[in-house]
C-alpha cells in the first residue's frame, strides 16, 4: 500500500492525539547538534521541527501538509525516495517516526545522505532493543512491528555511516500518541480516536483486532490486567525501544 495514501486517509484528525512531546523534542534538538538548516523528511504536521533553525518540511501526503500550523516551516509535497533538492543542501536531514512507512527505505536513506552535509537524525522504535510490550505480547501479536523494523535496521546499517543510538525511555504521560505511548494507560487503546491515529491499528485488517481488544477490555474490567501489569502504572518511564539514531557525515 502507498503509505502517503494511508496518511491521506487516516491523517485528517492526526493532530488530535499526536501532539508534540517536549521530551522527544529536546532529544531531537540535542541530536541535531550544531545544524543550522534541517530538512524534515516525512514531516507530517511538523511535530518535531526545531523553531530556532531554518527548516524545510517534506511529506507526500497533502492531508498531513494541510494540518501544519500557520507560520510553521514551508513544506514540499514529495517522497523520501526522490527528494527534489540539490546535493548537500542542508546541514541535517531529520526523519521522525516515518521510516517504516517508506516504500523503498534504502532509496530514502540514500536521499537523506545525498542532501545532508553534516548529519542524519532518525527517531524510531526498535522493539528488540527495549523491554517487551504487554500489548503485542499478550493481546495483539499481529501488531508487533519487530520483523519490519529488523529490515529497517539492516538498511540503516548498510546505507549510512555507523550510527550513535540515543535511548529514549517513553514517559508515562507521553503527549504524542505513538503506538506504545499508552503503556501505563491501557484504557486508551480502547479509544477509537487513539486507534485511528496509530498506523499499526489503521493498517490492520478489519476485525482482526477485535478478539484481542475485547480481551483487553474484559481484563481491565475484571482487574486481571492490573494484577499482571499494575506496577507499570507507577513507573515514570519505560524503555520500549525508542531511539534517536545519529549518523555523522562530515
Ligand atoms: C507517523 S507520521 C510522522 C509525522 C511526523 N514526522 C511526526 O513525527 O509527527 C508518518 C509520516 O510519514 C509520511 N510518509 C509516508 N510515506 C512516505 C515516504 N515515502 N516518504 C516520506 N514520508 C512518507 C506520512 O505521510 C506521514 O506524514
Give a short account of the largest sheet: 7 strands, mixed
State the total count of DSSP E strands: 9
Portion in strands: 15-25%
Q: How far do the termini sit from each other?
A: 36 Å
Please name the CATH architecture.
3-Layer(aba) Sandwich
| Coarse morphology | globular
CATH class: Alpha Beta
Secondary-structure-based class equals alpha/beta
CATH superfamily: Vaccinia Virus protein VP39
CATH topology: Rossmann fold
Helical fraction equals 25-40%
Give the neighbour order of strands across the main sheet.
3-2-1-4-5-9-6
Low-confidence region ranges: none
What is the average per-residue confidence, as pLDDT, rounded to a whole number?
93
Q: List cofactors, ions and other ligands.
A: S-adenosylmethionine
Overview of this protein structure:
It is a single chain. This protein has 250 residues and is an alpha/beta fold. It has a single domain (3-248), classed as Vaccinia Virus protein VP39 (Rossmann fold), CATH 3.40.50. Helix content is 35%, strand content 18%. The chain has helices at residues 3-10, 14-17, 22-32, 62-66, 105-115, 134-139, 146-159, 192-196, 199-203, 210-222, 224-229; strands spanning 37-41, 54-58, 75-76, 90-96, 116-125, 163-167, 170-171, 237-238, 242-248. The strands form two sheets. The protein has a seven-stranded mixed β-sheet with strand order 3-2-1-4-5-9-6, with helices on both faces. A two-stranded antiparallel ribbon has the order 7-8. Strand 2, helix 4 (62-66) and strand 3 form a beta-alpha-beta unit. 40% of the residues are buried. The mean pLDDT is 93. The chain binds S-adenosylmethionine. S-adenosylmethionine (SAM) binds at residues 3-4, 7, 18, 41-45, 47-48, 59-61, 64, 79-81, 96-98, 101-103.
